[in-house]
Design goal:
Elements: H1 3-17, E1 49-50, E2 53-54, H2 55-59, E3 61-64, H3 65-70, H4 93-110, E4 114-118, H5 119-122, H6 129-150, E5 153-158, H7 177-196, E6 201-205, E7 210-211, H8 219-240, E8 245-249, E9 258-259, H9 264-273, E10 280-284, H10 286-291, H11 298-305, E11 309-313, H12 332-344, E12 353-355, H13 366-393, H14 395-403, H15 410-417, H16 422-432, H17 442-452
Parallel strand pairs: 3-4, 3-12, 4-5, 5-6, 6-8, 8-10, 10-11, 11-12
Antiparallel strand pairs: 1-2, 7-9
The structure holds D-xylose and nickel (II) ion (2 copies).
One nickel (II) ion binds at residues 249, 285, 313, 356.
Length: 453
Amino acid sequence: MSSPARKRAKKQADVDEVEFFKGISKVPYKPDAGPSDVLCYKHYNPAEVIHGKTMADWLRFSVCYWHTFRGVGLDPFGGPTITRHWDDGSESIENAKRRLRAAFEFLSKLGVKYWTFHDRDLAPEGADLEETNRNLDEITDLAKELMEKHGIKLLWNTCNLFAHPRFMNGAATNPDAHVVAYAAAQVKKGLEIGKKLGAENFVFWGGREGFQSLLNTDVLAELTHAANFFKMAVDYKEKIGFQGQLLIEPKPKEPTRHQYDYDAMTVVGFLKHFGLSDHFKINVEPNHTMLAGHSYEHDVVMASKFGMLGSVDSNTGSPDLGWDTDQFPMDVKNATLVMKAVIEQDGIAPGGLNFDAKVRRESTCLEDMFIAHIGAMDTFARGLRAAVKLIEGGVMKMMIADRYSSFKNGIGAKIAKGNATFEECEEYIKKAGEPKQISGQQEKYECVLNHYV
Ligand code: XLS
Ligand code: NI
Ligand code: NI
């Protein structure tokens, strides 16, 4: 080995030995811990089998790289508040590698099996696409090595098609074909990276796929281009043998005034219209669902009922604010409703619960990174336990079965099967007369849910 090569190897080894989170050890499960003991799981016990699967298998937690390792606490009114001792703030490859090592120590101490990233979170953009791709190759070589070393898998990767100024008018829906082609070339590389790292899914989030004004927008052309873009992705995925599930993540607005992937049902309609529904599922983010004017669990339930729920970006907004605050989900009732839907579809794999969430701008210490994730994981573990009890108790299921029991026989069965005619319905009403009033019993349902939460 030549002397510079030896020096390089030594430097590498040194880096391997660095401990970034000194004083924080692997997070234990301590069900009896007291209220101020927050660096332990009190509910999440990964190997425990519950309702036929381990908790780890039901929950499939994942840490996102962009918030947890690239977030600096910037907001529209103020600069960064968060500095990490391993990050020198530069766009150098060395800095990117150090950050990645810190991330894998974090994942491993937290005891989470999955992570997610955007291409541009990991590696800096170069002078042109070729150089950018070379940077990505170098960093993902290290990622692969660290994933193997720590036994951590990639839930999904995605391409950042919204931050660079070239994408200001959109990516796949840009009015300029040159930009659409750039986005396609970037996604081509993204799929290759996904294959290289064994990604279980690949996400499309269309932050700038939409319009600021209908006056300058050919909506049908843009939607058709988006569909054609997705077809190219399907073709290339199949060509290279990438096994991951393709996912679309709806969001109604922010950063664009109106985004085409408005909510789960809009995406289902789009996919069906363009003949793409066999190739895609939906990555629901509850904070986005709330921005679309729905309840927290709404899109999880809707996507699931249509067989389209692929994964969840587990976060929450503040209901009193109208934007994507990406907070850690800490509400047990919300988590219960999400887990109820997940259990009813027998799990979320190959998707998972990805914490697309960031510590608050004011939560500046390293411990906060752990506490935030632990708190959210325990929230979902409690949600899982409560949802299992609710489902196994069977009371709500019976109440619902009873509520729809009129569709079991007679005219109801005919309507349910799609065999009834308007004339038959009219005949039925002539005989049966006015329907009796039946209570919807919302409060009773709420009481039953509260019994378990
Ligand atoms: C932004 C989105 C984004 C996607 C990945 O609001 O949630 O973070 O999850 O591009
Ligand atoms: Ni998201
Ligand atoms: Ni979001």
